[in-house]
Write the structure tokens for this entry.
Amino acid sequence: MRVPRGLFPISLLIFVTVQAQIRVIDDLGRTITLSAPARRVVSLAPSLTESLFAIGAGGQVAGITTFCNYPEGTRVLPRVGGMTNPSIERIVSLSPDLVLVSIEGNTRADFTRLTTLAIPVYVSNPRTLMGIYRSLTDLGSLTGRSDEAQRLVDSLKHKEEMLRSMVSRTPVSTLFLISLHPLIVAGKNTLLNELLTLAGARNIAADLEGNYPAISREAILADNPDVLFMTADLAGETEHLISLFPEWSQLNAIRQKKVYRLDTDIVSRPGPRALLGLELLLACLHGGTQ
């Protein structure tokens, strides 16, 4: 049936032609508004790059940092510099319609410069699994990949539920070394602390001030953790650790051969592989091998 001319009011015609805006609130409480899904995204954090690829938005990534090394598809992407010293000029030259930054990895100065250039900037700072799920959902909205993001989040939540059922009821005393010179450990308000807790560990450093506090070799000896974790790049065999701190040979973790070196990219990046990190911690705490 032919519709008579003039039947639809002008306001309705305008409504039909105008696209709905995309709005999300980032981890700084800022509202990010896009008129359409971002098609050229610059990611300034490895976790955010991984997240984009995980929700199927890898083809929309226009640039990344030199630290973005996963997944395989990142190898061919343009680099904009490091996380703390990216080239703003290089970022602008890529004509992004969205830039992603993290609070812990990037600097306030770079964030300020980007926002003054009128480029939409989304700030991510997840320190829990729930925070990761929220970031994935936001990125799905910003890139037009909401359905893919929701499927991924549902899958991760299901895996988290399964892993939680494997946790021992008796917390295991643990410590996670981030640096040896100086001695730095993972403390409270960090993803690592969340994963350790979920895996059935009692993080000794959770009572210290700061997210990544310094600790003395004497304090570690006094706390005497039953399990000792460290990033894979810190030391070789346990004997090397003892050569640095001979008194640690008396630690329960070392005497019971429960010293584990883990890939920091997996256990500390607040992205989609965090559940793999939880799985690795569980394997170590409940019958894993060095």
